[in-house]
Structures are given as structure tokens and as C-alpha cells.
Amino acid sequence: MRIRIDYATTYEYDRAARFIIQTLRLTPRSSEAQQVRHWRVETDVDARLRQSEDAFGNIVHTLYTEQPTQSLTVRVSGEVVTTGTAGVVPGGQETLSPLVFLRDTPLTRRDKLISVFASEFSAHPPLERLHRLMAGIHGSVAFEVGVTTPTHTAAEVLALGRGVCQDHAHVFIACCRQMGTPARYVSGHLLRSDGKDDQEAAHAWAEAWVPDLGWVGFDAANGICSTDRYVRVASGLDYRGAAPVRGASYGGGGERLAVRLNVRDADMQQGQQQA
Predict the structure, then answer these.
(1) Domains: count for the chain
(2) CB 4 within 8 A of CB 266
């Protein structure tokens, strides 16, 4: 499947910010499951973009502004050709042992509720256990925008019973680690099956380590394993390690954020244009 992505994040400030620095994890890597045809990251202000790689193997751009800035837009555009792998992440590019992903973080720290919830699935074989866990979270945490923030923990979300894809991923990760299964957070994009190309935000899901299979993607928000409709961009211990954009500004006062995202089937679009 050939997926086209156009993504813009705009920050506006009450007053011109003297200096802005941002960490951008917006660029996917090619693998057996996805081939990046072309990809571009750009900004509308005078800024420096320095590319590097973080400890998790993610492609990172660090952005520094060169002068006072009233507004800043970061744009991403590109195409990725994906192949279905039944959720299994092809090996060969891993930089860390799976055991690293047993570590707790503030967002995935376990409490009694997480422990009791995870215990409902721990008696099953590894792969079945994870499928059952995904289905359990999908049924227990309703998808609802606006009730949580990026600072909500897995335990808080499970108690609340509502959240967005980021929250579903954190609950899944916390439960996996409670059961002794390495799990990590993944940010990326999803080509929706309902035909809605314009989206409010990038997508998030989790990956868990399964013996004899390796890493497998589980999207508890949708109740399915990742497919060829998913474009994998970055991974980390939790949201903070894989967020598309994180940064800080000096001066500027209040800050407002707007996101524009379009994810579409490029082959279908081309066919419609030729018809």
C-alpha cells in the first residue's frame, strides 16, 4: 500500500519568542515492512535543522530558531510503501535489548489496579495473553478526545476508563511490564479505513516482545494488531521518548498549537485523478 502523509504543526506565541528549540521525531525508517519513497521536513522560519539518531534508533531532527519568532510551522510530507506482516516488526535494526523495555517510567508506573487488571490475562500463553490484553483494554477504556492530557498516567487512564490512543498504549505497556513482557510505545500514522483522510493528530500504539516472533504491534485503541495501514515513525519507553514534537521556547508568553494532518491512499488518489 502506498500511503501519502502531509503533516503540519503550528505554534503561535503572544509575543515573539527569543529562542525556540524543538526535538522532532517525524521521519520514518525504511524496513522490510515499509519503504520510504521520499520524505521532507521543513519549517517556515529562519532555523537550523540538525539530523541525528537517538538511543532507540529513531531519526531525530533538532530545530533551533535564529531570531525572534512570533509563529513557527513545521511541515512534513512524504510517501511510504507498506507491506502487511501480521503485526510482526521485521528485525535487523534493533539497537537495544528487549529487556530495556521492562523499565518503568512515570507514565507507565504500575499500581494495584494495573496489577489486578493484568493478572486476568497472565495465565495464557504469551501471544494469546497479549491479544486478550489488547481486547480487554479496548473494551475497558473508551476512546474519547479531550478527557486526558499527555501527563495522564496509565493507572489514571485505566481508572478513568476513557482516553485516546496514547492512553491505550500506555495502559497496554504498563500491563505488559507487570506480566514480565517487554513493551514499548510507538508513534506514527494510520490510514483510516473509514475514508477520513484529515485527522486531528498522529497515531500511537504499542509493541510487545513475543518469544520466537520478536516485536509485535498491538493497537488497543482499535483492538487490532498493526497492518499495512500503519506507518511506523518512532518508538520509546513511553510517549515522552517517541513524541513527534517536543521542545521549549524562551519568551513569547502564551502559546497556541494547531495541527493539520492528512493521511491518504496515494494509489487510490492517483486512480481518481486519472478517471
Answers:
(1) 2
(2) yes
How many C-alpha atoms does 208 have within 13 Å on its Cβ side?
27
- Residue range(s) defining the domain that contains residue 33: 2-82+244-274
Determine, yes or no, domain membership for 103: yes
Q: Do 176 and 206 fall into the same domain? A: yes
Please give the average pLDDT of every successive group of 10 residues along the chain, which has 275 residues.
96 92 96 95 93 96 93 96 93 87 96 96 95 98 95 97 98 98 98 91 97 96 97 97 92 88 86 52
Q: Is 233 found in the same domain as 259?
A: no
Look up residue 96 and give its amino acid.
Answer: L
In this prediction the pTM is: 0.94
**Cell numbers at 6, concatenated:** 502531509
Nearest to 59 by CA among 90, 100, 89, 29: 29
Tell me whether residue 128 is in a domain. Answer: yes
Is residue 260 located within the same domain as residue 223? no
The cell for 201 is 493528530
